[in-house]
Every structure is written in C-alpha cells, then in structure tokens.
Amino acid sequence: MDNNFNEVKANKLIFTHKIIYTFFAVCLLIILFYNLTSAPSFNRGVANRQGTTIHIMPNESLSTITYDLEAKKVVKFAFVLKVFVTIFKSPRGVPVGDYLFKDNLPAWRVAWMLARGQHNVNPIKITLKEGMTNEEMATLLASKLSSFRRDLFLSDIRSKQGYLFPDTYFFFPLTTSPEIVETLSNNFKRHLDKLQNDISNSNHTLSDIIIMASIIQKEAKGESDAPLISGILWKRISENMSLQVDASKDTYTNLGLPPEPISNPGIIAIEAAIHPIDSPYLYYLHDKNGDIHFAKTYEEHKQNIYKYLK
C-alpha cells in the first residue's frame, strides 16, 4: 500500500517537474523569438523619427536587401529577416521600388511588407509628352524626383534620343537614372515589336523611320495630318529635295534626313513614318489656327504663305 502511494507521489512530482520545465522552455523560446524578431533597441522609444526608406533595384539579391536593413537598424538580424521573407514571398520575388519602414516594426512585419510589395510610399505620376527631347525629359524628371541624377540620365542615353518612349509613368522617388532609362527603352521596344513586319516591308531602316517620326512629331498637329506630311517628306527625299522643315533648321541647307532623331516620337508619328499617304503635294504649312494647307508647286506654296501667314 505504501509502495503504491509512494509511486503515485513520485509520478505526480515528475509530472509537476515536466510542467515546470516545459513552462520555462516555452518562456525561453518566447523570449528568444522576441529578441530575434523585435525592432533594434536603437529604434525603440525614439520619438519624432520619420522611419527608414530604402530602394530595391531589379535583380537585387535578398541577402543584399536584408543586410542593408540590418545596417540601417530596421531589423536586428539579417538572417532572421531573410528566413521570414523566404517564407512569405511570392514566386516573383521581392517587388522593386521604394519602401518606407516605420520604427519599431518586428522582423516578421518588415518581411511581410517586402514579400507582398507593401511599399508604404506612393509612386509619382510623370507624363513624358510626345516630341520631348532627352534634355526636356531630364528637366521634367529632375523637377519631380528629388534624387534624380540628370547627368547620369543624359550620359546614359546620349545615343538613344528617339528611342525613349513618351508615355505616362509611375516612378518611386528614389528610382535611379539607369532604371528610368531601362523603363523608357523597354516601353519603346514593346511598341516597336508590334510593328516589326510593317517596318520590314517599308523599304526604310528603323533608324530612318525613327528620325522621320521625330520630325513628323514636331511638324504634324495630330493623327489626321501626320501620314500626309510623312508622304510629302519621303517624296521630297526621293526627289532629292531638301526637307526644309522648321523643326530642324539643318534640313534647309542639307539634303536628306538629319543624322539623328530630333525628338522622342510617339506611336502616331512612328506609324505615320512607316505608312505614309501618297498625295500630289510637295509643300505644306499650318496657319495661325493650326489648320494645314497643301500645295503642289512652290508658287502655290508662296501663295499659301501670303494668304495664311501674312
């Protein structure tokens, strides 16, 4: 009887010890988890801070991102953040762009923001209009993006004027110049891919088409007159006449197209350069209201000048 009582008492004592050990083990795990995932003590309790903003570039490795956030005291341990991001992230990886992390965020919350593309920063809407030059694009971008490097943008695209597609874009404030150039160039390529067959059948090189389109962009008033103007300009070249367009003064003294595009044309001007409309005209002008007037001969053209521009 006593033996049974002692055995029950011993089992209860062992069970009690197990509960106590388990309790302390769980507490230690909770403390360890909190210590690993909590915000750095550098951030905790600090008032009036604006948080930390980083910019993630295309193809930037997860290790680089997490170590950067550790260095900037957003998280305590890069390896912990990397584990959480790996668990949370989609197959596409961490979306590029700016991220603003408020202070005192736990590592798992930072990881969730990265994995799900929760930037906490609004991209800036920028419209690059058809016919803008590289210089004009750089000026506009510099006025909108505080960290934009005009010098890097222009040096990167010196030989690419005409090949940066004018469009409405959304850029984060810290987007780099090379990223912007790549975005504009890729947009140009996407639009041109749809026109490859037409370009091949046009009897003109892509370079000549883009140069012509850059002139048409400056000369035409819209979709209605662009193909007609294209037909007139291509005809003048075929008849060995100077183009004499106001958009490029060199065309008054030199035959043929300018050596490079004079602007960045939009899709209407590019399509007009590929698909000119044939007509009996060799001259045109726009009056003060923007209406176009054509002429078959130089005498008719002079009459139009006197009639509509004097």
What do these coordinates show?
The chain is mainly alpha-helical and 310 residues long. Among the domains are: 52-116, Dna Ligase, domain 1 (2-Layer Sandwich), CATH 3.30.1490; 124-193, Dna Ligase, domain 1 (2-Layer Sandwich), CATH 3.30.1490; 202-279. The chain has 12 helices and 6 strands. It has helices spanning 2-37, 62-71, 78-88, 107-116, 134-144, 150-156, 177-193, 196-200, 206-219, 226-238, 267-274, 298-308; strands at residues 52-56, 97-101, 124-127, 168-171, 283-286, 292-295. The strands form 3 sheets. It has a two-stranded antiparallel sheet with strand order 1-2. The protein is elongated and about 115 Å long.
From the structure above, extract its key features.
single chain; 310 residues; mainly alpha; Dna Ligase, domain 1; two-stranded antiparallel sheet; 6 strands; elongated
Give a topology summary.
Elements: H1 2-37, E1 52-56, H2 62-71, H3 78-88, E2 97-101, H4 107-116, E3 124-127, H5 134-144, H6 150-156, E4 168-171, H7 177-193, H8 196-200, H9 206-219, H10 226-238, H11 267-274, E5 283-286, E6 292-295, H12 298-308
Antiparallel strand pairs: 1-2, 3-4, 5-6
Can you summarize this structure?
With 310 residues, this protein is mainly alpha-helical. The chain has helices spanning 2-37, 62-71, 78-88, 107-116, 134-144, 150-156, 177-193, 196-200, 206-219, 226-238, 267-274, 298-308, and strands at residues 52-56, 97-101, 124-127, 168-171, 283-286, 292-295.
Mean pLDDT reading: 86
Structural class: mainly alpha
Helix content: 40-55%
Report strand %.
Answer: 5-15%
C-alpha termini separation: 128 Å
Task: Tell the overall outline.
Answer: elongated
- How many individual β-strands? 6
- Series of H and E elements: HEHHEHEHHEHHHHHEEH
Low-confidence stretches: 23-36
Major sheet description: 2 strands, antiparallel
Strand order of the largest sheet: 1-2
Q: What is the CA-based Rg, rounded?
A: 33 Å
- Put simply, the count of helices is 12
